[in-house]
Amino acid sequence: MTKKTKRTDAGRRNFLRGAAVGAAAAAATTVVAAPEAKAAENADTRKKARYRETDHVKKFYDICRM
Length: 66
Prior knowledge:
Elements: H1 2-33, H2 43-47, H3 55-65
């Protein structure tokens, strides 16, 4: 009975050790491999009007006001 318990504890210990090492390795590769962020917009697209209150949007607003 004692031998079985020791084997189970060693198995759990090895599993937790492996999980910790794997998590640390995954975190390290994520930080190292992260590409540099670049702006997706230029000056022209920032000035461009984006929101348009079209007919279907107006209809939605009217329905929600009820």
